[in-house]
Amino acid sequence: MEQDFYRIKRLPPYVFAEVNAMKARARANGADIIDFGMGNPDQPTPEHIVEKLCESARNPRAHRYSASKGVPGLRKALAGYYERRFGVDLDMDKEVVVTLGSKEGLANLAMAMTSPGDVVLVPNPSYPIHAFGFIIAGGAIRHVPATPDAAFIEAMDRAVRHSIPKPIAVILNYPSNPTARVASLDFYREVVDFCRKHEVYVLSDIAYSEIYFDDNPPPSILQVPGAKDIAIEFSSMSKTYSMPGWRIGFAAGNQRLITALTRIKSYLDYGAFTPIQVAAAAALNGPQDCVDEVRALYRERRDVLIEGLAQAGWDVPSPPATMFAWAPIPPAFAHLGSVEFSKLLLQEAEVAVAPGLGFGEYGDNHVRIALVENKHRTRQALRSIKSFLSRADQILADYEAGKAGSKP
Asked: How far apart are CA 320 and CA 40, in angstroms?
């Protein structure tokens, strides 16, 4: 029986699917693909966190259902993190909830707060769940610039004046995936003032708040006085502690939104496996040398990548944060768009990147390069990219001839 399901119809074809299929075929044929496509940390979780998981897992009582809201020890640890890092005081019972990663938390809050047709403001380009969490929930998306500056505030103002119905929420994501931009506390103050005035909720994603390379750590919107009146913030253990497969994160802030998210989660899950939550608390409460080390690792990889690309003739801005470089497509290939360029790079250089189109239509003139290969592999990729760019005329001629030959 063939059916068109309403929510599935609202999801476009997965932009990364074609490149991923090419990558799989190439590997099956023995190609050594250097993969910068997915932001999947390659470092092991620090040993003391793994040991705490094992210790807790040996307790049979930990094998029972957990707490959907999060065990008290982890919620207390999360509140302690906000106090130490941002100087923000949180009530662990009313203003914190544990999530199965930030992605699950965002999607479930979208389900909890969205009525059919509600308008949400989402940066473009942005991480896909920021838009599609609300689309799946039946909402409508209005795009705003991805830059944390006056243009963003002006776009919010136009949206509030002209959108029918008025937007219910705006998404922020700084440090940004995919653009790596970082917001200032002054920008957050402007957003909070505007959104309190117009009764618009703010959903802030700071999953990369600990992966930064400048002297000033990225701020939290909750540092702004009055932010908790309208703002909730999501974060994750995935990048900070190299725990992506553990699926553990949290939300903090506005009590009404935390209550809504907690309530809908109580119908959907029993929380993460208790030993994972215990280990996550140990990560937050324990020594933070591992965070410094992973930050230094990504900084070193960033420098190798950006310097090597410049030497190859590809000018890419050095990201101030995150584990990504947001790379403009080289001018010779810019007319192809991000998907076709990514396919050519994979085919000719055996290097995989993420097409910018996958993060929104305004990302189509970029590709995202993840810092997930070691320095040796990165240098190997850089040699291939340099050769690829030096052969641009011939590669493009072959590409156009192939297109012409495929026409009926």
From this structure: 19
